[in-house]
Amino acid sequence: KTTMRASIIFLALLVVGLLCVCNAFALEPTLATSRRVAMQSSFFVPSQWNLRARAPLDAHLTVYVAVKRTADSLESMFELSDAVSTPSSPRYGDYLTLDQLHSLVKVDPGQLATVQEWLCTAAPSHQVLKSTPAQDLFSVRVSVGEATALFGCAFGVYQHQETTQSLIRPTSLFTVPAEVADCLDFVGGLTRFPRFSRHSPPVAATERVVSAAEVPHTTPATIKEAYGIDDVGSNSTGNLQSVVSFLEQYVNLTDLQVFQSTFELPLDPVAKILGPNDPLNPGIEASLDIQYLMGVATGVPTWIWSTAGNHDGDNEPFLKWLLDVELTRHIPYVFSISYQDREDTVESAYAERVCQQFMQTTLRGTTLVTGSGDWGTGCTDQCRRFQSDFPSSCPYAVSLGAVSWLSTPTGPSAATSWSSGGFSNYFAQPSWQSNVVNAYLNAPPTHPPTQPPPSYFNATGRGFPDLSTIGVDFQVMYGGKMIPVAGTSAATPTFAAMISLLNENRLHLGRPTMGHINPFLYIVPTYSSDAYVDVTRGTNKYGCCAAWFNAVPGWDPITGLGTPQYSVLRDLAMSTELFARFQ
């Protein structure tokens, strides 16, 4: 309690400091005559949103300001990430405390002063809501009148055609003074328009590659059978996992209890709910996530981290959630994040900074798991290029594709047509996957070809997904009824639960958690060919393109490394041969 009280006092003083710094600047528009530059590459309003009126000047917005970290600071964190996540490293698992992490994050004092001057001159009444200690990321509440001065544009009230929800957005590209732009990674909370439903697969939830009435439903029991899961968690190791809920996705805890009873699972309660939860308005996505994270990793204490609302229009409020995570001293070791979007719909600067925040989170020993998307290859206008998924394209997230069982859970699987995969246009191919990805790219040509023309994708980008699990016909208790659900968002809590159980085994022996697990996932086939079951059937041809990826032997950009065999991964995660530090 003393530590928590001290942290609250520190944050309060920090916010007051950010506000009081305005007194150091004369409230003259010293930057008003500077050349202004746009902070976004284009201005776009989705077709479902209509401009209704000019926004009242006394209305308020919450804006997220990301100040650039120094090059030395970033380099130190990336180097440390490699050291603590590479299995052969003598520093493997040397994770950071929150205070140690904060000591690494640094901004240039002159650049921070420029940003503060800009805020104080254009928005003297702004209120800093939350800030990291280094002040590299903070949220600010400003009036529309102040936002107009800050961003050099008018603001309007937009209304969604179907839901009638209204929000305030710029009516043109927003800009900042050039001197300020040089100091920022991005400004968030201004341009994104929310979507109001999850990306549902475009086919029936019971999709099968072949018709087979005997294929069982997907339940915790059939998942455990398919992947050889025989471990359970406990309250004695300090293990902790969490689902992350956005976009007003809430959980009905009664549904969870009925689900647990129906499938003869322990009646484990949710350990903590952070943020709002409306049990009378549950979401299918949130219900799926919590039921299968807890249903597969039974006994592991579980949180629901709810960041409700639409973060002033962001598709997923990653910024608000990541800011909260960075300000929380003790966080779960696994986050299951079942929300994705097309990479090209987010600005590259935004994606890069979010990915850096993911990296910072893994430095604390936490793993982030997400789905690869439910739109196959996707496509841009006239299908000149496939679309990548974000945050799957971030190398510091584990990306999961979806497969279906052809007969029994322990039999062969096939890729689903809507399971997304491909190559990032923002992030370079990380070294830990280069061998398997290059083996795919350099495979001898076949007839008919198994690879699409190279003009469709960026062969030097981060390849995804990393691996796959079952993603169809999940039996979910929703509103008192059992319904089938499908998607890579179903594969996400499935594998996240397996990572929690790997952590359980490690923590039991006082060993570090899996953290940034991708380097481990890609090296294990060197030690055991049984770690994954290769998936060689199926394509992700859903979309408007005339080309797609095929599941082939080895890693491929639809099923990744294949489907995991938990017991083999568990043995390798405890291996003294693979992890020299464990000897």
User: In which range does the helix fraction lie?
Assistant: 25-40%
How many distinct beta strands? Answer: 25
Strand content: 15-25%
Alpha-beta classification: alpha/beta
Rg of Cα set = 24 Å
Distinct helical segment count: 15
Shape from CA axes? Answer: globular
Distance between the termini: 38 Å
Report the uncertain regions: 1-13, 23-29, 197-212, 311-316
Largest sheet: 8 strands, mixed
Can you give the mean pLDDT? 88
Note down, in words, how this protein is organized:
This protein has 583 residues and is of the alpha/beta class. It is 29% helix and 20% strand. The protein contains 15 helices and 25 strands. It has helices at residues 2-20, 71-85, 98-104, 109-122, 144-151, 178-181, 220-227, 253-262, 284-296, 318-326, 348-362, 434-441, 488-508, 518-527, 566-573, and strands at residues 36-38, 49-54, 60-67, 127-131, 137-143, 155-160, 166-170, 175-177, 184-188, 241-246, 272-274, 302-307, 334-337, 341-342, 367-371, 389-390, 398-405, 413-415, 422-428, 461-464, 467-470, 474-478, 481-485, 532-533, 563-564. The strands form 8 sheets. Strands 10, 11, 12, 13, 15, 17, 18 and 21 form an 8-stranded mixed sheet that branches. Strands 4-5-3-9 form a 4-stranded antiparallel sheet, with helices on both faces. Strands 2-6-7 form a 3-stranded antiparallel sheet. β17 (398-405) and β18 form a beta hairpin. α8 crosses α9, α9 (284-296) packs parallel to α13 (488-508) and α13 runs parallel beside α15. It is globular. Residues 1-13, 23-29, 197-212 and 311-316 have low confidence and may be disordered.
